[in-house]
Amino acid sequence: MFLTKDEERMLAGGKGPAVQKAMRLLVALGDVLGADRLIPIESAQIAGVSYGNIGDAGMELLEDWAEQGARIKVKSTLNPAGMDLERWREMGVDEEYHARQLRIIRAFERMGAEITCTCTPYLVGNAPKRGAHIAWSESSAVGYANSVLGAKTNREGGPSALAAAVTGRTPHYGLHMEENRKPTAVVEVKARIVTTYDFSLLGYTVGRILGSGIPLLIGVPRADSDRLKIMSAALAASGGIAMFRVKGTTPEAGGLKTEGLERLCVDQRELEITRERLSADGEPDLACIGCPHCSAKEMRNLARILKGRRVGRGKGLWIWTSKGIYNLSKREGYVSAIEGAGGKVFTDTCMVVCPLEKSGYKHMVSNSCKAAHYVPSTSGLKASVTDLHNAVNKVLEGQ
Fold it and tell me: How many Å from the N-terminal Cα to the C-terminal Cα in the chain?
């Protein structure tokens, strides 16, 4: 793999031990994956932030990097942490977990990361332009960046995204290369796709059937950013898909050659199979909305749905969003409307990476297939999926 003189100096330790570690990681990764060189990046989105995910070993590794002088060179935001950094007690998080999570956040802060813990960085200032090379790690954000924004990133691990942020570079392979961004399969959608929940079902179904590759979806109505972000999350959860195209909606989707590609059909029955697989028996006692994190539009819609309603006794409604969207929603009165109805709005974290089992609830319902896919394994709660209105209604009084 070709390295510039500056990169060779970094690899040799000329810019400090932390930069040397980062370069060693990137060069090793590039060698394994056949990269010809390193390329500059404009931004990073770094995973491995939740204490519940990385534990003491990950925490100590981050502190070691910070101590050795690792400093981030490009705009870099973080993935959700394992708790709301301010309202952690309301989530049932204990003092020990809280203290260790804060050590992780402080290590990232020392390295120069923006303490914006969200899976939707593109909604709060980290929105790369079309064609930009970036190093992002959260699966739904990667899918959204490649597919909707037209930026270029592979799905990075937490360490490789951090190394890219510290050096300002990433290996040139995979989805950074134009020839690897072409569709590998055509998906004809014959199901009725209307709501945000429908887009989540569609994404999960395509990922479940296809497994990997870059699907070109045909027959899908034009979608707003909220529907595309929830579909990005579902595609990655069920199939590990890091890029998709929707004819008539996403950039780079027109004029593509489809001859010889695998062809699939997704009908209403396939969506129903997905719903059944992701829905446990029994009545939910907790509704979780915001996987990926809610936008301001979604917060406004939730405030409207909850007008004049109240969360039932023994049940919970937890909403998840970024700090930036929370602050905007608070100014607009959406937060007070949600909390006035008995709901809670959390930031910095989500239902997938926080210790949801500490909440005391037993069965979560969501409009997100990604949430229903991961929550049973990450926290032990049962999970179900349904439309937003139905999910919220299941935990309101009188239902």
Answer: 62
Q: How far is 255 from 184, CA to CA, in rounded Å?
A: 15
398 domain-assigned = no
Contact 116, 84 (CB under 8 A): no
pLDDT at 263: 95
Q: What is the pLDDT of residue 256?
A: 75
Q: Of 233, 258, 276, which residue is a domain's last?
A: 276
CA 358 – CA 98 distance, rounded (Å): 13
Contact status, residue 385 vs residue 279, Cβ threshold 8 Å: yes
Q: What is the CATH number of the domain that holds 133?
A: 3.30.499.10
Token pair listed for 206:
């395509």
Asked, for residue 42, whether it belongs to a domain, the answer is: yes
The predicted model gives 387-391 an average pLDDT of 97
Q: For residue 178, what are the contacts with CB-CB under 8 A and spacing of at least 6?
A: none
Mean pLDDT on 381-399? 94
One domain, residues 285 and 262: no
Under the banding of pLDDT at 50, 70 and 90, the label for residue 278 is very high
Provide the pLDDT for residue 258: 85
Residue 127 has pLDDT above 90, yes or no: yes
Give the residue numbers spanning the domain of 206.
182-276
Q: Any long-range contacts for 375-380 (C-beta under 8 Å, 24+ apart)?
A: 375/288, 375/351, 376/280, 378/52, 378/352, 378/353, 379/351, 379/355
Q: How far apart are CA 367 and CA 290, in angstroms?
A: 9
Q: Are 257 and 370 found together in one domain?
A: no
Phi, psi at residue 251, to the nearest 5°? -65, 160
Percentage of the chain beyond pLDDT 70 is 99
Confidence of residue 189 (pLDDT cuts 50, 70, 90): very high
Q: How far apart are CA 144 and CA 157, in angstroms?
A: 17
User: 145: which DSSP letter?
Assistant: I
3-state secondary structure of 37: strand
* pLDDT value of position 375: 98
Looking at the domain assignment, is residue 202 inside a domain? yes
Query: Which token pair is 331?
Result: 């100014």
Tell me the backbone φ, ψ of residue 59, rounded to 5 degrees. -60, -45
pTM check: above 0.90: yes
In a domain, 13, yes or no: yes
